[in-house]
Every structure is written in structure tokens, then in C-alpha cells.
Amino acid sequence: MGEMMVAVLFARDDSNYKKIPGVDVWDAERDARKWQGGCPVVAHPPCRAWGRMKHMANPRPDEKNLARLAVALVREFGGVLEHPANSDLWTAQKLPRPRERDQYGGWTLPVSQYWWGHRAEKKTWLYIVGCEPRDVPQLPLQLGDAPMVVGNGTTNHPQRGTPGWRPQIPHAEREHTPPDFARWLVELAEKCKGHNDQAKGRAESASSD
């Protein structure tokens, strides 16, 4: 097998990424903590310990550290980390808010997965290192309301029987990355290869000292 262009970390076992050529997919069985680096990444670390419903979650003891590791790998090798909009990970790891930059050149792009075919809007933040805003792949902006929602019964969603109510998507569908979004994220990560090449150069320079 030739050199992989992009590594996808913390993917589902039935991930759509496994259908994309040239992508090195790390699911729970392979364990992304064992990844040795060498190319840009698309990171999908578990989010239930960081999102707005974290008070109802029951994450594994080590689960929050997976997201911290994902941040470190994106910063070192370039690529993109995907998490729910307003994830607490941004505050905990000092990630830049939208329209800000951090010391790694990283920045945050707010998107809706509905643009790529998700049946719910699913507002998402992307932390990107190694690709400038002007160079991101074209965004398939889609207007209008998504036919479903990620969750009902909160102040953000009308109750059943009231105007504006929409059904809730199944849990498994909520976790899946739409195929078009997966391909877009891989294309974005490929554009971060220059950052990864710089990381290789720094490592080689350090080893020769």
C-alpha cells in the first residue's frame, strides 16, 4: 500500500471514510492513540463529554483525553478537528473562536452538516491548521430548514404539536459523517500537507542535531 494522503482518527467502525481511497482510517479497534503520524489528519474525537448535553453523558474515564490528543495531532501534523458548535473543548484547549487565530496558525470554521446532506442542521465547528480560509474547498451552502433536528424537548426546539416542531434523527444517524462531508473534510486535510511537511522538516532537523 502506498503512502496515505490523510489519516482519519477516532472514526466509527462503520465509517463512510473507509470507502474513500487513500485514506488511513483509525476506528476503535485500531486505536488512534497508536497512530505514528506522517500525514495530515481528519479528527473526530468523542464529543459527548464536551457538548451541551454532557451532564447526561456517561463517557469512559479516558474519553476527554482523546479530544485533547486530537488537538495536539492537528497542531503538529496539520488537518482538521470536527466537534459540535460551542464545544467546551475550545475553552479547555484554548482553541480560537470563529474569526480568531491561535499561535499555531489554527482557526475555526463554523459549518452546518445539513449543507452536505445531513437530515438535521447539526451545527459544527472545524478547527483547521495548515490551510488558509481562502484555500478551503468550496462550501456547498444550502438554505432553508433541515427536515429533522438533533434533539427535541429543549428551549431551542419547539415541542411536538407546536409550530416549527420537527422529528428527531436516530442516534446512529446523528453520529455518522455524511459521505459528501467526509470527502470534503479529506480534501480539506489534503490541503494541509504543507504544514505536515514543515513538521517533518523540524523533526528531521532535530534528529540530526
- Top CATH class: Alpha Beta
> H/E series, N to C?
EEEHEHEEHHH
Overall mean pLDDT: 82
- Distance linking N and C termini: 32 Å
Helix and strand composition category: alpha/beta
CATH topology assignment: Rossmann fold
Number of helices: 5
- In what order do the strands lie side by side in the largest sheet? 2-1-3-4-6-5
What number of domains?
A: 1
- Give the overall shape: globular
% residues in beta strands:
15-25%
User: Gyration radius, to the nearest Å?
Assistant: 18 Å
Question: Number of DSSP strands?
Answer: 6
Helix content: 10-25%
Overview of this protein structure:
The chain has 209 residues and is of the alpha/beta class. It has helices at residues 63-77, 89-92, 171-175, 179-190, 193-208, and strands at 6-11, 23-27, 41-43, 79-84, 107-112, 123-129. It has one domain (6-141, 178-208): 3-Layer(aba) Sandwich (Rossmann fold), CATH 3.40.50. Helices cover 25% and strands 16% of the residues. A six-stranded mixed β-sheet has the order 2-1-3-4-6-5, with helices on both faces. Helix 1 links the parallel strand 3 and strand 4. It is globular. The two termini are 32 Å apart.
Short description:
The chain contains five helices and six strands, in the order E-E-E-H-E-H-E-E-H-H-H. It is of the alpha/beta class and about 210 residues long.
